[in-house]
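Entry: Nucleoside 2-deoxyribosyltransferase
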Amino acid sequence: MNIYVANGLFSIGDRYVNAEIAKALRAADDTFHLYVPQENDAINDKEAYASSAEIAKADLAELRNSDMLVAVIDGVEIDSGVAAEIGAFSMLGRPIVALCSDVRQQGTGNKQKIEALKENALENQFIYRNLFVVGLIKENGVIVSTIEDVVREVLARR
């Protein structure tokens, strides 16, 4: 099974999360073939040069060749490259497992938080994700909150 792992790759935190997801998936099933863009030095060695067209061509080829997309949708907003990868992959009608680990998902039953939000939208203590992107994920997949859940969902959908 070919799996594309989509996330930002420019910060130490993103690269760490990507490596942890890859490690967990490889440990769960050593027959998985993972495409983790940060591991592709041909287009992502930042000491070298790759044009935007080369990056798009390489990543689109990997998306087309993948059976499943694992996408990290954390951050202040969903990484623009990840959102584009989700959009492109959703057109293939294949499974998407998204990871949203933001702790602001907690406390949805807290009445004080709900009342504060009703009174003043600037008191929003919850997370917002772009609803179009969330809809694309839900059309063929699921959103989970831990790396362990990612592995469980990938194994269930293979």
